[in-house]
Design brief:
Elements lengths: L6 H14 L3 E5 L9 H4 L7 E5 L2 H10 L3 E5 L6 E2 L9 E4 L9 H6 L2 E4 L11 H18 L10 H12 L1 H10 L5 E2 L5 E2 L2
Parallel strand pairs: 1-2, 3-5, 3-6, 4-6
Antiparallel strand pairs: 7-8
Helix pairs in contact: 1-5, 6-7
């Protein structure tokens, strides 16, 4: 999210991320800050990790270095219909604030641009609605490719997420103290250390 400034939009985007299985959201905060609206997010900040970045360049370069294709939701001349793109490879969707759109830096770094065809008089959708449409298209494609049949997280990452979700206070304490999370036994039991 590139300077998405309204907390209800940010929160609704997190809710859509959780609904399709996105585990991480990256945020470049607007100058005035950004908070989660708990009634809109339905508590999904507990399930979706939010990573804050000071600027779009660093955020997008980090994602690209980890193998993500960068796709900006932006109605430009070179944008393709959002349904035509293949979302099965690792893909980061770049969203901008409604009035300003995706920043010039983010557009310059993006690999592709997508748009959502509209038939009425409006020129653009609410950013959280646009996000949901794109994410659910990605989910449809990934489901058709069998990508939801089993977890694609390695065991350590899965166990870390499970511990953070099941024991958020203990996980935060261990992170603060620099202590590792406990491991899990073969039957899923926690092996405390």
């Amino acid at each position: 999210m590139d300077r998405v400034g309204k907390s209800h939009n940010f929160s609704a985007i997190l809710r859509s991320c959780d609904a399709v299985g996105v585990l991480d959201a990256h945020v470049v905060r607007p100058d005035r800050g950004l908070d989660v609206n708990h009634s809109t997010s339905a508590g999904t900040k507990k399930w979706v990790s939010v990573h804050h970045h000071p600027h779009a360049i660093g955020a997008l370069e980090d994602l690209r270095s980890r193998g993500f294709s960068l796709v900006a939701a932006h109605p430009s001349e070179d944008a393709v219909d959002y349904r035509e793109l293949d979302y099965t490879p690792p893909t980061a969707i770049v969203l901008g604030a409604e009035l300003d759109g995706v920043s010039d830096d983010a557009l310059r770094l993006s690999d592709r641009r997508v748009s959502i065809p509209l038939s009425g008089m409006v020129h653009f959708l609410n950013v959280s609605v646009a996000c949901a449409l794109i994410l659910f298209e990605a989910r449809r494609q990934r489901e058709a490719a069998g990508m939801y049949e089993r977890s694609r997280l390695d065991r350590r990452a899965f166990e870390a997420r499970l511990f953070e979700w099941a024991y958020p206070t203990l996980a935060a304490g261990r992170r603060r103290e620099g202590r590792p999370y406990p491991t899990f036994g073969p039957d899923g039991e926690i092996l405390w250390t």
